[in-house]
Structures are given as structure tokens and as C-alpha cells.
């Protein structure tokens, strides 16, 4: 997509909303001057913040609502009582065509439920998946599903691979992505039937890039493939394990440098390198999980992020919009010889 387009923002979603949302939009505005921002939230709280950024205010519109989805609300409750909430109205803006995408740092379950009900799924997609990207030894990779579907059949996994392939091309800029199915081993006979069936299907799919085959847990950080495909149960555990390990090593390093005078002196000498490492692994750089497979761009920001992190979530949405991600997914399915088979719906988290 070229020219101007609008992105709807749930101004009340997130631990530090609406301040974080407005500041994040101002950062994103500098990178994406063609974006018009639609803020959905309490005008009495949003407008004073927006007035601090004149350039942002000129490309923004506030849609007032004093209702919001709370973090503890169940998806069913949010669907039933949140029709006038900031989250729902922002999603509605995408469905009506007033916005090309929506970004929220609010309740994940509610956002997924609302987005699926309002936006529906793309042709050929039976289950949407949560996708996000992270640093690896070779650069960056995308992994999906990260929690939307506990159980998946072979067709679901194939659909995830197609959508992950598009994500790698549009957001990560990989021209010919490599794809792999997360498994307990790399041998063809390893894994359950759905994995083996999905592997056979993907070998015959005509997609940009190539299908690597099965990958193991340590291949995620190695960057063995650009797209890691798995069910939501396994993907969510893998994601949380990666996050936990990163925090563990950061704490170990912090404690080590505080352990003695020489260690503190060593920290001063190593600080430039450590700052570069901190920047490389800063989770705010990789903020923004997208609900792939919906008939509309919907991005979930981490609820505890700051303005910089939220601006990067906006960036994910903008990249998907500008590079016609939804159209590419539809085109890729149209160019394949294998049609998705309708099967019983997988369980959700």
C-alpha cells in the first residue's frame, strides 16, 4: 500500500495507558509520516497528552469512549459487555474500513476473541495464529503459533507456515524465507502424525523460499530457519522459556559484576560492549505480536511495555499494511496446489 493510511489505537490498553500509547504514536509518527492515528479512549485523558505533541495532533483523531476492557476480564465477558470499549471500537474501525490496522496493549484473550468475531478469517484460513519475531545468531526469526491454538492438525500447521512466510517477507525483509516445523528431532520419522503430515504437505507447497524440514528447540536461537512453525501449546512454552532464560542470564551477569571491586572495574571497561548487547536483545525492539490469518491487521503489544516498545508494535502493523500482507497470504494460498481441509476446530488457550 502506498500513500496515507490510518491505524486505530486502543488508547486505554496497557499498564501505562494512555500516556504510553500517545508517546509511542509520536515516536512511530517520525518513522511513518504517512500514518493517520485514530485514538479510541477517554478524550479527557487522551487530549491533554496529545496536545503536547503538535505534529502528532495534526495527524490524529480522538474517538471518545469511557469504557475499556480490563486486564482480568474473560474473553466471553469482553465480547458480551465490551461493545463500546476502546478495544472493540478500534477493531470495528478496521472492519468498517476507517483504519487499515489496529494496535492494542490490552487484554490478549479479549483482543483475540473480539478481532476474530469482528474481522473473521481470510479465505483458506481455519485458525488464526499469534506470531512474533525475536533475535537469533543469524539475525531475526518469526515463530508461530505462540498461544492461540493448543492443538493443531496438519492443515493448521501448513497455514501457519504460509502466514509465517509472509511475515518474514513483509516485516523482517527476508526475500526467500526458510521454514521449519518445531519437533523433538530432525529425523523424518520423529514427531506425531500431524507434524509428519504437515512436513509432507509443505515439501510440495510452492512458496517463496524453501522448507527446511524439522527443527529442534536449540535451532530457534541458532536462527536455523527464518520461520519456526509449531502449535500454540508448544510455541507458548518455548517463548516463555526463552524469555525466562534471558532474564536468568541477565540477573547472573548483574550479580557477577557486583560481586567484587575488580568485577565492578571490569564492568566499567566492558560497558560499551554490554550496552551494545543490551540494545541487541532489548525486548522493546521485538514488541508486537500479530494475529495472523484474520481478515484485517491486528497487533498485540505487550501490556507492560513503554512508549518505544509500543511504537515498534505500531511499526509491525504499518509494515504489514504497506507490504500488503493480507493480499500476499491470499495469493500464496491461491498459488499452491493443496487446499486447506476443513477439520474440527482446535482448542483455544
Automatic annotation (TrEMBL):
GO molecular function, one term: phosphate:acyl-[acyl carrier protein] acyltransferase activity
GO biological process, one term: phospholipid biosynthetic process
Entry's Gene Ontology cellular component terms: cytoplasm
InterPro entries, A to Z: FA_synthesis, Phospholipid_synth_PlsX-like
Compartments, as annotated in UniProt: Cytoplasm
UniProt keyword annotation of Secreted present: no
Pathway: Lipid metabolism; phospholipid metabolism
The keyword Methyltransferase is annotated on this UniProt entry: no
Record key words, sorted: Acyltransferase, Cytoplasm, Lipid biosynthesis, Lipid metabolism, Phospholipid biosynthesis, Phospholipid metabolism, Transferase
Main localization (coarse): cytoplasm
EC number: 2.3.1.274
Stored SUPFAM superfamilies: Isocitrate/Isopropylmalate dehydrogenase-like
Stated role: Catalyzes the reversible formation of acyl-phosphate (acyl-PO(4)) from acyl-[acyl-carrier-protein] (acyl-ACP). This enzyme utilizes acyl-ACP as fatty acyl donor, but not acyl-CoA.
Quaternary structure, from the entry: Homodimer. Probably interacts with PlsY.
Protein name according to UniProt: Phosphate acyltransferase
Species of the source: Hypericibacter adhaerens
The encoding gene: plsX
Amino acid at each position: 500500500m502506498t500513500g496515507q493510511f490510518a491505524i486505530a489505537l486502543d488508547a486505554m490498553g496497557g499498564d501505562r495507558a494512555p500516556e504510553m500509547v500517545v508517546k509511542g504514536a509520536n515516536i512511530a509518527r517520525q518513522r511513518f509520516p504517512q500514518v493517520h492515528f485514530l485514538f479510541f479512549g477517554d478524550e479527557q485523558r487522551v487530549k491533554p497528552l496529545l496536545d503536547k505533541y503538535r505534529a502528532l495532533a495534526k495527524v490524529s483523531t480522538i474517538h471518545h469512549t469511557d469504557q475499556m476492557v480490563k486486564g482480568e476480564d474473560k474473553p466471553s465477558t469482553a465480547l458480551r459487555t465490551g461493545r463500546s470499549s476502546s478495544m472493540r471500537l478500534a477493531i470495528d474501525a478496521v472492519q468498517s474500513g476507517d483504519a487499515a490496522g489496529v494496535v492494542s496493549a490490552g487484554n490478549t484473550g479479549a483482543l483475540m476473541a473480539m478481532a476474530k468475531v469482528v474481522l473473521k478469517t481470510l479465505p483458506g484460513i481455519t485458525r488464526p495464529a499469534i506470531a512474533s519475531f525475536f533475535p537469533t545468531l543469524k539475525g531475526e526469526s518469526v515463530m508461530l503459533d505462540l498461544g492461540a491454538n493448543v492443538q493443531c492438525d496438519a492443515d493448521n500447521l501448513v497455514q501457519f507456515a504460509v502466514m509465517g512466510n509472509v511475515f518474514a517477507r513483509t516485516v523482517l525483509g527476508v526475500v526467500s524465507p526458510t521454514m521449519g516445523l518445531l519437533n523433538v528431532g530432525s529425523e523424518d520419522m520423529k514427531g506425531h502424525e500431524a507434524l509428519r503430515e504437515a512436513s509432507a504437505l509443505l515439501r510440495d507447497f510452492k512458496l517463496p523460499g524453501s522448507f527446511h524440514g524439522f527443527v529442534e528447540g536449540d535451532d530457534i536461537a541458532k536462527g536455523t530457519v527464518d520461520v519456526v512453525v509449531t502449535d500454540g501449546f508448544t510455541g507458548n512454552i518455548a517463548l516463555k522459556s526463552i524469555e525466562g532464560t534471558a532474564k536468568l542470564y541477565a540477573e547472573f551477569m548483574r550479580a557477577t559484576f557486583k560481586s567484587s571491586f575488580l568485577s565492578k572495574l571490569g564492568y566499567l571497561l566492558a560497558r560499551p560492549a554490554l550496552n551494545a548487547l543490551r540494545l541487541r536483545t532489548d525486548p522493546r525492539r521485538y514488541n508486537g505480536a500479530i494475529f495472523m490469518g484474520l481478515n484485517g491487521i491486528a497487533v498485540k503489544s505487550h501490556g507492560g511495555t513503554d512508549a518505544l516498545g509500543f511504537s515498534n508494535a505500531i511499526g509491525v502493523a504499518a509494515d504489514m499494511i504497506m507490504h500488503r500482507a493480507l493480499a500476499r497470504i491470499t495469493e500464496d494460498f491461491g498459488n499452491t496446489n493443496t487446499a486447506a481441509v476443513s477439520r474440527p476446530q482446535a482448542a483455544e488457550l
